[in-house]
Specification:
Blueprint: E1 3-8, H1 12-27, E2 31-32, E3 41-46, H2 51-70, E4 76-81, H3 82-87, H4 90-94, E5 100-102, H5 110-118, E6 125-127, H6 147-151, E7 152-156, E8 158-159, H7 170-174, E9 178-179, H8 182-194, E10 199-203, H9 223-232, E11 239-243, H10 252-260, E12 267-269, H11 277-283, H12 289-302, E13 307-314, H13 321-334, E14 338-343, H14 361-384, E15 390-398, E16 405-410, E17 415-419, E18 428-437, E19 440-444
Parallel strand pairs: 1-2, 1-3, 3-4, 4-5, 5-6, 7-10, 10-11, 12-13, 13-14, 17-19
Antiparallel strand pairs: 8-9, 15-16, 15-18, 16-17, 18-19
The protein binds S-adenosyl-L-homocysteine and FE3-S4 cluster.
FE3-S4 cluster (F3S) binds next to helix 7.
Length: 449
């Protein structure tokens, strides 16, 4: 039977899609190769959010086909996901050795297409059509794939985004918002819990818009909060997380859910993008600085100790030094627990790409750097604040870097390393934090045993 190697770029949605494709192929008799060199099929699941991510996947593909050709190996190679969706056949024009280009609504066809290519029935396949109900096709799980996924699993609840932020390519690559039904999602979660999963992360490009068109508000609760309530009912499930929400989705019902639902972990990723109202408007974000800070405050009041993380773009078109300083001052005020900083990257067919006043690269770099220094300093102080504290972690398994150490996560989503063993795997346990490293806490369980 053929073997397949899948490499994933980008976000957790992509990780989840790759896992579902792998599970689909394994169910059809494929094996998973340990490296691309050993595989009959190499698939790159791509990201288009920034140009850098696209270039990485293109260079990787050049490398793969170059090696296969020089070693006279007959490999089937393909691009999946967001870049496949946005570039389509152009990818084969550019890299003629590529056999398959499979878009974001077609992951469930991967096995069928690979069978045809391997059997020589077809030479090239490009499928980037939209497909009704494709949001419900990402169902298969590979729970024994890695230690991490056996206690913690991702469940896709929706696809697409209708927010159309002016910098973002996601609405083009992932399409219109389409949500699965609550019973369908709950059934998948129940099945996972029955197989030993204790933590579920609900995934979507804008999860707070889940089910908007399909469900009415019920007793002031949005469809998303109704879904949280339903998942919360599952016996044996210990922790619920979700990503990515949109700040405008943090109504009182969701804020209140943090206080009301004990399984909902006290962690929120609140993508800010900019601290300047003028830039937020140009970005089409749908909130102001004041509104954003209000949400942070409400969340901290509802759930003290909540971990709040964010995404920020440096150098959006038209961003002046004054706008940028507003972003810095917001970071001082919000005190994020962690922040992902991105240099603005012009994306094809997005409104911001054609805006006047594109910020010179050197300034984007410089602002990126200044912002990083600030957010890392704030985050570092927050990490240090954990020293001496006792925290509950869910143990995921041995650390990838050092097998003698085990790794777990706090409820507020911080990684904790400790000297553990196989018996800790999958356990919820308390550890005392002894010291901190770069975005890591080091804990000692012994004291408490
Ligand atoms: N809600 C989505 C956002 C996807 S993009 C999700 O997380 O699933 C993730 C982050 O990438 C965004 O929050 C934004 O900060 C950044 N980003 C998106 N488009 C970008 C661009 N054109 N240039 C730089 N950063 C960008
Ligand atoms: Fe992109 Fe904005 Fe949606 S960042 S994914 S268009 S909320």
């Amino acid at each position: 039977m053929p073997s397949v190697f899948i490499k994933t770029y980008g976000c957790q949605m992509n990780e989840r899609d790759s896992e579902a494709v792998a599970a689909q192929l394994v169910a059809k008799g494929y094996s998973l190769a340990k490296s691309e060199a050993a595989a009959d099929v190499v698939l790159l699941n791509t990201c288009s959010v920034r140009d850098f991510a696209e270039q990485k996947a293109i260079n990787k593909m050049k490398n793969v086909v170059g090696t296969a050709r020089s070693e006279k190996r007959n490999q089937i190679v393909g691009f999946l996901g967001c870049m496949a969706q946005s570039r389509g056949r152009e990818l084969i024009d550019k890299l003629p050795d590529v056999d398959l280009v499979l878009g974001t609504q077609k992951f469930h066809r991967a096995a069928e297409y690979l069978d045809e290519l391997l059997a020589g029935k077809r030479k090239k396949i490009v499928d980037i059509e939209t497909e009704a109900k494709s949001e419900a096709t990402i169902r298969e799980h590979l729970l024994n794939g890695s230690a991490k996924t056996s206690v913690s699993a991702f469940v896709s609840i929706m696809q697409g985004c209708n927010q159309h932020c002016t910098f973002c390519i996601v609405p083009a690559t992932r399409g219109e918002e389409r949500s699965r039904t609550i019973p369908d999602i709950v059934a998948e979660c129940r099945e996972l819990v029955a197989r030993g999963v204790r933590e579920i992360t609900l995934l979507g490009q804008i999860v707070t818009s889940f089910g908007k068109r399909d469900y009415h508000e019920l007793a002031g609760k949005s469809a998303f909060v109704q879904l949280l309530d339903a998942v919360h009912e599952i016996d044996g499930l210990e922790r619920i997380r979700f990503t990515s929400p949109h700040p405008k989705g943090y109504g009182d019902d969701l804020v209140e859910a943090y206080a009301r639902l004990p399984k909902l972990c006290e962690s929120a990723h609140l993508p800010l993008q900019s601290g300047s109202d003028r830039i937020l408007k140009l970005m089409h974000r749908g909130y102001t600085r004041e509104k954003f800070l209000g949400i942070v405050e409400k969340l901290r009041r509802a759930k003290p100790g909540i971990g709040i993380t964010t995404d920020i773009i440096a150098g959006f078109p038209g961003e002046t030094e004054e706008d940028f300083e507003l972003t810095l001052s917001l970071c001082h005020e919000a005190q994020f627990d962690n922040a992902y900083i991105f240099k603005y990257s012009q994306r094809r067919d997005t409104p911001a790409a054609d805006m006047a006043d594109q910020v010179p690269q050197a300034i984007r770099e410089e602002r990126n750097h200044r912002l990083l220094e600030l957010v890392n300093e704030i985050a570092g102080r927050k990490y240090d604040g954990f020293i001496g504290r006792q925290v509950e972690i869910l143990v995921e398994g041995p650390s990838k870097k050092n097998a003698a150490r085990y790794t777990g996560r706090t409820r507020c989503n911080r990684i904790v390393l400790f000297d553990g063993s196989a018996r800790h795997q999958g356990q919820l346990m308390d550890v005392k934090i002894e010291r901190t490293g770069s975005f890591t806490l080091y804990g000692d369980p012994a004291i408490l045993e």
